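Entry for the shared binder. Reason: the reviewer on the internal report wants the predicted structure included alongside the sequence.
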Amino acid sequence: MKKNNFKSLMQAAVLICTPLVIASCDDVFGDVDNPIPSHLTVSQAAVNLELHAAHPEKATFIRKGIAATGAQLVYSSSDEKVATVDANGKITGVGEGECQIIVKATGLDSNGKQTYQEAEESFTVKVKDYRARIALTDEAKPAILNVADVVAAPATPATTVDLTEVLDVWPALGTDGLNITYTTVPNKKGDPTTVDPNGIISSTAGGKITLSGNTGMAKVIAKIAAKTDVPDGFEITSFSDQLETDTFVVEVKPGVAYIAGYKADGSEIRETLFKDYAGQKYTDLSDKLMNAGKTAFLTTDVTLDAGWYYVDRNLAGFNNNIRVKGDVNIILNNAFTFSTSKDVMDESAAQNYKLNFFAQKKTGVTPATGAATFANIKEFKEVNICGVNISAPANAVENVNIINGSIKNLVGTGTGNVNITDGTAWNVEKFAALTLTKVASTGTPDVDDVTNVGTVTISEGTSADDLKGITTLAITKASVGAIGAAGAANKVGTLTIDNATSIGVLTNIGTAVISETPIDDMATITDLTLKKVKTTAARTLTEIGSVTINKTDGTVNFKGIETNALNISDGTIVVGTSSPTTDAVGQIVGFTATAEQDTKVKMTGGDLKVYGPAGTVFAVKGDVEVSGGKFYAESPDHHAVSGALVGTFEGSTDGTNYTAITGPERPKYIRNKKSE
């Protein structure tokens, strides 16, 4: 009975303790939720390897990490171009340099179970390469150059190819460390082909392949000149050819350079185009306009599809229409002419295409010498002119951009824009906007005879003349001739002039604000504001609704002012002359559509002197109100002021005559009222 009780007690104890034992084992062996340390260690001493054919054993080394029993380790290199490492810790040198070998405990045991904590250690490997050899790098692709780049100005870098930049040289002493020579003769394998049949290379001195400007293909080989040039301790046997590289190919292909625009500093933006390479292509225009033998021009209309065309010879004898189907770009040769007695026209019904003209860029040739002449350029979405002179009217063209070129007779659709940079245009009409800008350091961009344009902007360093029929006109630091003209169609709605070097006669303007500019005669202006202006001769203001003078640059002289309101806040103004004649100058007077009327002069500052003309003419016909500044008027044979005088006037405070009036029994102004 006691034995049975003891047996039962033992069985119960086993059942109770077993889970406790299993739980405590997890602390010894670990699992994914409770991994144990991997105890990874590896020597930190640097490993030094050497690459030398005579000592291959120095190129490898084995170093393993130590970790807890069963912990999995992986090895990797930070730079396999220097050294590699396999799964057993064997390190193999590859090339000159330094890298890190990383040993990592993954946390897995030999059964692939997550048992241990991850850990990582690393050490340095240094590789010294004693192999003396040269080879082309993987980046040493054949050099394909455009002949337009090769023969360009010396500033263009493509006149040479630096072979030293595509060489790997061991020992790593650089190309100066060994005596490297370059040759274009057939290599020693006996290649029978002439290496440079077209003479595209003129020199290979110093590894700089200097190009002659010819087109064709050439081969270049780099060599270690002699074994004696290899420093002591280095070997040459590990390179297959021992002393020379593979062949490096240089090819110069046909192409053309052109000016695509200008930078903010005025320098040229030069682009090049292959005749047929790497997605680039252009067609000699003679291929389209002449017969197969290039002996005569075609006698029918010609169609140009979208693409690039080059004027490769004089094309001045073609006498038919050129029909454009797509965006067409034409590069004009500086030495040749291109013309037709007929039209160049957009064939699309919706006016979708662009027509672009560019000047070829040749060494020593000034841009903007290319030329083309047509009867008309018709109905294009956009015409762009860069560096060429176009002699042709452009009719029903929506947009026009001119850079350092010129065109005559531009007629738009009323919705597009004209942008002129360092160029010239004449007879421009029916556009929404026109801008004239100077970028280049030389030359004066110019536009003449502009009418029926919405907004016109004339910028610094440019010139313009005969501007009329414009809604808004802004001029800054430019030289400008006549603005506006008689007739409703020629009116300029709003005019702003700032710091212009000169302006011509202004006629038929809505609102005009002129600042820091020498002024000329003006007529038929609704509202005129003058700020710090000056005159180089006496000017006449005729039929000006209101005149506001805020400031002057010195004394501003007028022969006469015809305005219904003259407001002066600052400046020195003289109207007329102290030695008057009988030609009715020197008067300030108002106006209506058919006759004179009284004016109103108001001064809050400044200095106004009015010298009336001889005869029975007032100096000021109207009222004068002075709350600041100095006012003086005289009329030799008549009253100086016809209307009321309000304020304090020069010469009147002491009761003396306000004006000098000659002749007996003439009324005089004393203070603010007439004397009888």
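Summary line for the report: Residues 255-388 form one domain.
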